[in-house]
Amino acid sequence: MSNLTDITPLRWLMRNPIWGFVLLVFIFFSLMSDHFFDYRNFQNILVQTSTIGLIALGMTLVMINGNIDLSVGATLALAAAFAVDVQSWAMFATWGNWQILPAVCLALLVGLLMGAINGFIVWKTGVDAFIVTLGAMLGIRGLVFVYTGESSFYAMNFAYSDFSALSIGPLPVLAVIFLLCTLIVHLVLSRTVHGRNTYAVGGNREAAVNAAIRVGPHMMINFMIIGFLAALSGVLLSTQMGAATPNLGRDYELWVITAVVLGGTKLTGGKGDIIGTLGGVLAIGILRNGMNLMQVPAFYVYVILGSILIAVLFLDKRFNRTADGGLRL
Amino acid sequence: MNEKLEPALRLQGIVKTFPGVRALDGVDFEVMPGEVHALLGENGAGKSTLMKVLAGMYQPDEGQIIIGGQPVRMTTPIEAKAQGVVLIHQELSLVPEMSAAENIYLGELPLKSFGRVDWKTLFDRSNAILERLNCNFRGEVTVVNLSIANQQMVEIARALTVDARVAVFDEPTASLTDAEKVVLFEIINDLKARGVGIVYISHRMDEIFTLSDRITVLRDGSYRGTLTTAETNEDEVTRLMIGRSLDLSRDAATPTLGETVLEVRNLTCAPLFKDISFSVRAGEVVGFYGLVGAGRTEIAETLFGLRSADSGEILIDGAQVRIGSPPDAIALGISLVPENRKEQGLVLSMNCRDNMTLPQVQNLTNGPFVSSGAENAIFDKYRDKLEIKTPSWRQTVRVLSGGNQQKIVIGKWLSMQPRVLIVDEPTRGIDVGSKSEIHMLLRALAAQGYAVIVISSEMPEVLRVSDRIVAMYSGRIMREFTAELVTEDSLVQAISGIQVNEVA
Q1: I need a surface site. Which of A38, A117, A221, B66 has the fewest CB within 10 A?
Q2: Residues whose CB falls within 8 Å of the CB of residue B186, separated by 6 or more in sequence, listed in order
Q3: Which sequence spans correspond to the domains of chain A?
Q4: Chain B residues contacting A via beta carbons under 8 Å
């Protein structure tokens, strides 16, 4: 954006209230917990955030499009299962550490494929993305159980699970991958033609068709992007655990949607950005981490997060309601 | 009559402010029983706000509402209705999946014990009202199956569930055909004869002069005066509304016409239109006039590749072409400014510049990214050319006035360098001042060598902008007129399907 000159920090915060919230919880936990304000803990937060964060990047695109993808958790599990399983296939036995490469490539390809199928069905049938991906969520999760035979896969190659412990300079490699993806998706959304069309398609699909944007293929690309990112997230999660379980990624779609909505993306499409989404995932990451450090029992965390989600959206409606919009109910 | 009649409704010194705006500034307004009082003003003049105050949706900050001699306070639309003030909305606010009867009594369904709906009473009462309105459907039908005009009738029927003292009609004819308008006017006159005070809001001068007894004009939220319809004329009313006279004369100088750019031969798309043949030359404005549903919009959509024709030929510069999709049409130099700018033309949540460059943004790249400079250049050029009033390109189009929004859409398509510009209902929902601006713009564009097709349901508009007029009825071209030879009578006959035996 070239309009940085007339934007004061305060105005910027008004427009991105989630970052004000991030700042608030950051200060709160720094004061309340002895262990929170610690360099190692920050690294932790970034690594924990990266899993949901990667998917949230794709979800931002899909939701600005006016769609939604509920199948990301299942896609993540399927990709993780492939990544861990394929490297121990007999045909790659002699490849040494190189056996990880085809495994990861195949896992990412599976993610792309799942996204492509979702997108293709939405494009060709015109069925609502909510329904299509709800079906995909059940179906893909089923495939995971069929494929794994209900048991977990363990990575035999220790180089795989060591990967997540690597650092590049001061940052853990997982955080670096997440931040890099954030930057790329941000640039795609804010600076490229594809990004511009994403807003147009979500803002007014009919006007987009009239402007000669090929809406169907466009939406399919965004589903492929989120499929890829969900698979990448699955691969990285399995390196952290050194294993892939069939229940991996359960409820992740809900966390991701929560983060994206907290970041200011509209469920109806046409509005949102990656800066907000980054704020949303960090807010959730910091809250979970901080409450964990304060030894708040896990289930209270859910209660608190749920309340915060509703409160934030309520405040947003209060302050950012347009002059004509908004019915008094 | 010596006895002074009490007004059915009187508003005194109404003030309503919103953060940063004084939407109504000491407005006085009254309507007598049995009177049609027209309320006029440009978009944003405060008509809608005044109506919402009347209907109890807004509370005035100052001033009084007096109904039948008693000052009242109304805090909800239901209260207003109980006082006998009913509002017929401009935009249909019906529940499409419910029956007409349920819609008519929405929010106040007759009940039996335990909150059960008393269906018999409901249908009996609704059918009585629908009969009074001469509707040819019954309360049992589902609203979604009704035509727009009949849905409007349901909306009106809703207002008649109480003994109305004042009925407010907000742009009731916006989606009606001429025949349906006649029915509506009969209903209004019938209500008037029963002593109901009618407030009639419309942009259409001809309607106001046929229907109303008095006219009150608002401008910028303040009261500009009340005129007796019989003693005034359009010019005076317009001057009150926009503060100046309108130049309604047609640009008489016939431009030098160029070659035939677009020719259509025997284009058919059953059952929408049949055997359509016409041509447009460079520098010419061809007007398509007809009733809603005559097939004009569908022809435009076919030319733009949104529909495919069953048979027939489309020729550009004498060569036959195939248009399968909007990108094909755009590549051939055909642009369409669609009928409904908010639904089909604009992405309301986007800014002005991005909307304007939307169809060509893929060609405005610098490396992998969109080039901001190239986009701004296009926006600046057409902002100046079309005199679009916006503080900056970053302004969201949602907040612009209708006229400026329409100019953004026109600018969007002009920037694609079209040869044929199709404009569907260019001034729908646009106020009088901007309307004439759009008309002059269309003439100017033709003078610059564009071949322009204007589709319109408003006769004055077609007469004013067109060099030739194609009259359509029920999917067929009835007649073609040149601007010199057209008369209102012959045009009305043609679009009503009356065949004229032309004397050679």
Answers
A1: A38
A2: B134
A3: 34-317
A4: 18, 304, 306, 325-327, 330, 336, 338, 343-350, 354, 358-359, 361-362, 365, 368-370, 372, 394, 398, 412
Fold of A34-317: ABC transporter involved in vitamin B12 uptake, BtuC (1.10.3470)
- Which chain B residues are within 8 Å of A2, Cβ to Cβ? 372
Q: Say whether pLDDT at A323 is over 50.
A: no
Element (H, E) at B460: helix B459-465
ipTM score? 0.78
Among the partner-chain residues B344, B354, B365, the one whose CB lies closest to the CB of A210 is B344
Structure token pair of residue A182: 């954030």
- Closest CA in chain A for residue B341: A207
SS (H, E, C) B22-51: EEEEEEEEEECCCCEEEEECCCCCCHHHHH
Closest residue, chain B, to A209 (C-alpha): B326
The label of the residue with tokens 């002005």 reads B352
Instruction: List strands edge to edge, sheet with B62-67.
Output: B70-72, B62-67, B9-18, B21-31, B222-228, B214-219, B36-40, B197-201, B166-170, B85-88
Q: Tell me the average pLDDT across B287-295.
A: 84
Q: What single string gives the DSSP state of each residue in A135-154? A: HHHHHHHHHHHHHHTTS-EE
**Residue B328 phi/psi, 5° resolution?**
-60, -50
DSSP state of A47: H
Which residues of chain A lie closer than 8 angstroms to B354, CB-CB? 196, 199-200
CA distance B213 to B235: 17
**Percent of chain B, pLDDT > 70?**
93
Domains and CATH numbers, chain B: 9-242 (3.40.50.300), 260-349+417-495 (3.40.50.300)
Which chain B positions have a beta carbon within 8 Å of A212's beta carbon?
325-327, 330, 359
Quote the pLDDT of residue A231.
97
**B326 vs A contacts (CB less than 8 Å):** 209-212
Question: Is the pLDDT score of A65 beyond 50?
Answer: yes
Residue B139 has pLDDT above 80, yes or no: yes
Residues of B in contact with A200 (CB under 8 A): 347, 350, 354, 358
Phi, then psi, of B499 in degrees rounded to 5: -75, 135
Model pLDDT for residues B69-120, shown as the tens digit of each residue: 888 888 887 788 888 888 887 666 788 889 999 998 887 888 888 888 889 9
Q: Which of A227-241, B196-210, B292-306 has the largest mean confidence?
A: A227-241
CB-nearest partner of B327 from A195, A204, A212: A212
Closest alpha carbon within chain A to B307: A210
The tokens of A266 are what?
Answer: 């509209």
Rounded to 5 degrees, what are φ and ψ at B86?
-120, 145
- Between strands B451-456 and B166-170, the pairing is unpaired
CA contacts within 13 A on the Cβ side of B352: 26
**CB-neighbour burial class of residue A178 (10 A; exposed 0-12, middle 13-18, buried 19+):** buried
pLDDT digits (tens, 9 = 90+) for A181-236: 999 999 999 999 999 999 999 999 989 988 888 999 999 999 999 999 999 999 99
Compare CB distances from B362 to A193, A199, A210 and report the shortest one's residue: A193
pLDDT at residue number A134 = 97
Contacts of A199 in chain B (CB under 8 A): 347, 349-350, 354
pLDDT of amino acid A315: 75
pLDDT digits (tens, 9 = 90+) for B23-51: 788 888 889 999 999 988 776 677 878 88
Distance (Å) of CA B139 to CA B99, B112, B163, B466: 6, 19, 20, 43
Question: What type of residue is B411?
Answer: G
Edge-to-edge order in the sheet of strand B260-269: B273-281, B260-269, B311-316, B319-321
Look-up: residue for tokens 């492929």?
Answer: A224
Integer Cα distance of A89 and B385 in angstroms: 67
